[in-house]
Specification:
Blueprint (H helix, E strand, L loop, with lengths): L1 H20 L5 E5 L2 E6 L3 E3 L3 E10 L4 E8 L6 E5 L4 E3 L8 E5 L2 E7 L1 E10 L6 E14 L3 E15 L9 H13 L2 E2 L5 E6 L3 E7 L7 E5 L12 E5 L2 E7 L11 E7 L4 E6 L15 H18 L6 H13 L5 H31 L13 H19 L8 H4 L9 H15 L7 H9 L3 H24 L13 H52 L4 H25 L13 E3 L2 H9 L4 E6 L4 H11 L2 H9 L3 E6 L5 H9 L7 E5 L8 E3 L5 H9 L3
Parallel strand pairs: 3-12, 13-20, 21-23, 22-23
Antiparallel strand pairs: 1-2, 2-4, 4-10, 5-9, 6-11, 7-10, 8-9, 11-12, 14-15, 15-18, 16-19, 17-18, 19-20, 22-24, 24-25
Helix pairs in contact: 3-9, 3-10, 4-8, 4-11, 5-8, 5-10, 6-11, 6-12, 9-10, 11-12, 15-17
């Protein structure tokens, strides 16, 4: 009791002293490396609010923190004890500055800062004197951080009418400046959007006119790498920021919230969602060493791509063409090799240009995206089936059919070589050869120039084996001389062509079910009738017109049937093998339960994926190891376009399938990405490292 009486005596004396001072109800305290004080009018009015503030003045080099402190720290906090009828709003935070400290980055304030807040007095509050007690906690840092606290009081006079008074001109100026500097809510004219990239985000802040600079401060923690530079790219109606994601981030956020500070002092609080981001010219080109490394990987990946079953039928056709031309002049053979290479490289340029254009428009696409279209799959199956009929001997159109499905050239025409290269690229895109995955993911995250360099290297790698053979005509002496056997070889070449058609029909079954298969088979029947007409009455104008009409009907029916009659097939859970449909939420739930997680990013049109699944992931020893380690298995099916899967691949630094990632339990790591070509040993070794 004595202690309590002494406390109230001291409080009364302090209150009397404040009341006699005649100044504002500003109460402060000195602490290590700073001074803190409350600024508020000494007179408050019932039924009204008054502006107040918490003022920090720091020693040189020391700082306090913003609401998101950055890599370390915490913002100031205030807890109040007030009479009934009086309340205080939360502190408001002016725009901070970036405060680097070694490899880290803090967000905060140096020298001095005022955090405004409002005091509210209810209409039924008692008049007279009122004591407002505040407990203030803070963290002040330089090379070291010191926590601090102070108990501050405001002695207020509550009146029934009038206006709040008692602030000095200096206090009025400080409060007014602090309130004026507060960020505004995003106006209707401000448009924001972001796109995920393999390394982070492209954030668009569109104000309606060109902005010279901008700084982004996230209100979320763990979303960006705070210390990474923020590349600023002015655009016609605003600015685009290139941000690096936090190294521990495993899930692409559904929104980016924060504060943007523009060059003229304007600042806005906003929440951006995924959407179109204007294309910009990158100000920071890719490092030459990294670019050369990725281009080399792409070249080797392109060479290996020749061994993939996707490209095998086309190589058969080019091999047959080379045998047929073995007796021709060397310069003629070399020109064919160069034209074939040009067809491949030009096709890759067209693909990367399309990808970059769609990315700039806000689409999230990856390597092999065209095979996510059932119409494309159906038309590709039809083209190859018609080609197979010609090679098998039903009718004669010649090898130029491989190029454009028609009479683009004669068998040895340059147009035939060019469009054979085009076809090689088209059928190669479902496969991601070893070494290609990381290179393509890198390329699509860089500037347009870097993307074209990497994809050019990829195209040269794909063309290299045939090109080298044509540039060394002496090697063609090892080939047999033309003869009757070539007709047999040509007919044998139709076998892998028809095998590829079977695969495409299977892909159609995965995406459009039995109805889609029926439409495709009906299309192939019409093509067979068209081919029969051409073979029964060769080189006659009337039958050619009939065959062409049937061909056009087949194509029209194919597009209409696949697009309208056949419904998409939903991915079913493979309960018998333990695989579950992938979703980011399901993966996060399993990881939160500290389960090891294995994700198979796959697609029905990806032959490498199917081989890995059947030979490796379904192997008895691998299934047993999954069960022994209690691994949660998820299949991310990218057969049809899925933005969530595309963004998840981008977060892993990849843009195509196959991709395999293993998450260890109890860690915040981004997971271990396994090679594109799996063996049981690779998977078992990765599983052995799990705790």
């Amino acid at each position: 009791m004595r202690n309590r009486g002494f406390y109230w005596l001291v409080l009364a004396v302090a209150t009397l002293f404040c009341g006699l001072s005649g100044g504002a109800a500003s109460v402060g305290a000195d602490s290590s490396h700073l001074r803190v004080e409350l600024i508020a009018p000494s007179t408050l009015v019932r039924g009204a609010q008054a502006q107040a503030g918490l003022h920090f003045r720091m020693e040189s080099g020391w700082h306090v923190y913003w609401q998101n402190a950055g890599d370390a720290g915490e913002p100031p906090r205030v807890s109040w004890k007030m009479p009934a009828g009086i309340t205080a709003d939360a502190l408001e935070f002016p725009p901070p500055t970036r405060l680097p400290l070694g490899p880290l980055m803090d967000f905060g304030y140096e020298r001095e800062v005022v955090f405004p807040f409002a005091l509210h007095v209810a209409a039924n509050a008692e008049t007279g004197n009122a004591v407002l007690a505040a407990r203030v906690n803070w963290l002040v840092c330089r090379e070291v951080c010191l926590p601090g606290h102070a108990d501050l009081t405001l002695n207020e006079s509550i009146t029934a009418s009038g206006s709040a008074t008692g602030l000095t001109p200096d206090e009025n100026a400080r409060l007014g400046s602090a309130v004026a500097s507060l960020p505004s809510a995003a106006p209707a004219s401000l448009h924001t959007a972001f796109q995920a990239t393999p390394t982070g985000y492209r954030l668009a802040i569109l104000t309606g006119h060109r902005e010279a600079s901008a700084i982004f401060f996230p209100t979320q923690t763990g979303v960006i790498e705070n210390a990474a530079p923020q590349a600023v790219s002015p655009v016609t109606d605003g600015v685009v920021l290139t941000l690096k994601k936090d190294s521990t981030l495993t899930t692409i956020p559904t929104a980016l919230s924060g504060l943007v500070e523009l060059s003229d002092g304007r600042s806005y609080l906003f929440t951006a969602h995924p959407g179109p981001v204007p294309a910009v010219v990158e100000h920071q080109p890719a490092e030459w060493g990294k670019l050369a490394q990725q281009a080399g990987l792409a070249f080797l990946g392109g060479m290996i791509l020749n061994l993939m079953p996707c490209v095998f039928p086309v190589l058969f056709l080019k091999g047959l063409s080379l045998v047929n031309s073995a007796g021709e002049e060397r310069v003629h053979i070399r020109r064919h090799g160069l034209v074939y290479t040009l067809g491949i490289v030009a096709s890759f340029w067209l693909l990367v240009a399309l990808l970059l254009a769609l990315r700039a428009a806000g689409a999230t696409l990856g390597w092999g995206f065209q095979f996510q279209s059932p119409i494309f799959v159906a038309l590709m199956a039809a083209l190859l089936f018609f080609l197979g009929l010609s090679l098998a001997g039903q009718f004669e159109i010649g090898l130029s059919l491989t190029s454009a499905g028609g009479s683009l050239a004669q068998k040895q025409g340059y147009a035939g070589s060019f469009f054979t290269g085009v076809l090689a690229v088209v059928v190669a895109t479902p496969c991601t050869a070893p070494l290609m995955g990381a290179a393509i993911g890198y390329a699509l995250a860089q500037s347009a120039a870097a993307s074209f360099v990497v994809f050019t290297a990829l195209g040269l790698g794909l063309a290299a084996p045939y090109l080298l053979l044509t540039l060394q005509p002496s090697w063609t002496r090892l080939l047999p001389r033309p003869g009757a056997w070539m007709e047999v070889l040509k007919q044998a070449t139709s076998v892998p062509i028809f095998a590829t058609v079977i695969w495409l029909v299977w892909v159609m079954a995965q995406t459009r079910g039995a109805t889609g298969v029926a439409v495709l088979l009906a299309t192939l029947l019409l093509l067979a009738i068209s081919g029969w007409v051409l073979g029964r009455w060769p080189a006659r104008r009337g039958p050619e017109l009939v065959a062409t009409a049937i061909l056009l009907v087949a194509v029209g029916f194919c597009v209409y049937g696949v697009n309208t009659l056949a419904m998409p097939v939903s991915a079913a859970e493979e309960s018998n093998s333990g695989w579950k449909p992938w979703s980011q939420a399901a993966v996060e739930q399993a990881r939160a339960a500290e389960e090891p997680v294995f994700v198979d990013f796959t697609a029905s049109w990806c032959l490498s994926c199917q081989v890995n699944e059947r030979v490796v992931l379904r192997a008895a020893e691998v299934r047993a190891a999954f069960a022994q380690k209690h691994v949660a298995l998820f299949k991310a099916d990218w057969t049809t376009h899925d933005d969530a899967i595309t963004q998840a691949l981008a977060a892993l630094g990849r843009s195509g399938v196959p991709t395999y990632v293993l998450y260890a339990p109890g860690t915040g790591s981004a997971g271990t990405v396994l090679p594109e070509v799996l063996t049981p040993g690779i998977v078992l070794d990765a599983l052995k490292k799990l705790p």
